Amino acid sequence: MSGRSEARRKKSQWNFPTIYNLALYGAQALLSWEMTTAVRAEPLGPPNSFAKRVLVTGGAGFIASHVIVSLVEDYPNYMIVNLDKGDICDSHFVKLLFETEKIDIVLHFAAQTHVDLSFVRAFEFTYVNVYGTHVLLSAAHEARVEKFIYVSTDEVYGGSLDKEFDESSPKQPTNPYASSKAAAECFVQSYWERYKFPVVITRSSNVYGPHQYPEKVIPKFISLLQHNRKCCIHGSGLQTRNFLYATDVVEAFLTVLKKGKPGEIYNIGTNFEMSVLQLAKELIQLIKETKSESEMENWVDYVNDRPTNDMRYPMKSEKIHGLGWRPKVPWKEGIKKTIEWYRENFHNWKNAEKALEPFPVQPSFV
């Protein structure tokens, strides 16, 4: 069987939904009940009946699922193609996807993102995050899509104690995850330099909110405390992070989609910064309703730090501010909504308890 025939056979088996208007794909563990019951069996109509055809890779993931919700609400004349089960590293699949779906715009979220896991599965991160991105770039370029948005991370800058990073700051990643994202950025930028292919890169701060898998620090701490378990803190907990609420980062992506200039990089950040230890104590106060320092310490468990754990990722975001975007959701409002969501929805994930354990980090890049 030829590669194209095999690709067509496998594509027919994908869970590969086309999302139209409010007929949103029901990713049960990620989306609200209202959205999961909104699936309709409406005819989609011919391709030319849509203003744009947008491919979202990793659409069942945390941030991308929020973006899809906003896209189908704000752009009812767009057809959203959600790729969450196909293999972005399979060039036959990806090429056929662009040929059959006539994609105009790509929002590339799909990636391996667990920093701790990247230390023990570095080759897997390189394969998916770098090679997979290159496969998508090649197919998108051949299909002449109008815009390719690559979703990167503030971690490509490496850590800094005082200097704020802007988009021209050098990439100095310190862990395998960040290294893979930085390497993929180089491929993306090369397509602009060589072909003037209309790519845009975003680098965002830590995002939090409903629907995030509890391996990440905020949902992990919330879930641990709600299950009467201690917050597990790597090292001293003095590392600080900037936290951005999910709906704010969605608005940033939609701003870049609409106004972002080809060949440019946009930091998506916030001035709200707190240490991991401070985060744990604030969540302890909110969930366990205690203010005593000694009582709060009883809910903290200090575990071995990972091999590299950057102290800060301070970023300047004036460039995207110039496009009209700024974060709007205050921390107290965002964290309250997040706590309430996990209180009601933690059970939606299978085996989520495993994500609450301190990750067994091995200091190896292999």
Topology:
Blueprint: H1 3-11, E1 18-20, H2 33-36, E2 52-57, H3 62-74, E3 78-83, H4 91-101, E4 105-108, H5 115-118, H6 122-143, E5 147-153, H7 176-195, E6 199-204, E7 206-208, H8 217-226, E8 231-234, E9 240-245, H9 246-259, E10 265-268, E11 273-275, H10 276-288, H11 293-297, E12 300-303, H12 318-321, H13 331-345
Parallel strand pairs: 2-3, 2-4, 4-5, 5-6, 6-10, 7-9, 8-12
Antiparallel strand pairs: 1-3, 9-11
Written overview of the protein:
It holds the Pfam family GDP_Man_Dehyd. By secondary structure, this protein is of the alpha/beta class. 39% of the residues lie in helices and 15% in strands. The chain contains 13 helices and twelve strands. The strands form three sheets. Strands 1-3-2-4-5-6-10 form a seven-stranded mixed beta sheet, sandwiched between helices. Strands 7-9-11 form a three-stranded mixed beta sheet.
CA gyration radius, whole angstroms = 20 Å
Main pleated-sheet profile: 7 strands, mixed
Tally of DSSP helical segments: 13
Number-wise, the strands total 12
Structural class: alpha/beta
Bulk shape: globular
Q: Tell me what the CATH architecture of the domain at 3-208 and 245-272 and 313-328 is.
A: 3-Layer(aba) Sandwich
Keywords: Lyase, NAD
Protein name: TDP-glucose 4,6-dehydratase
Cofactor: NAD(+)
GO molecular function: dTDP-glucose 4,6-dehydratase activity
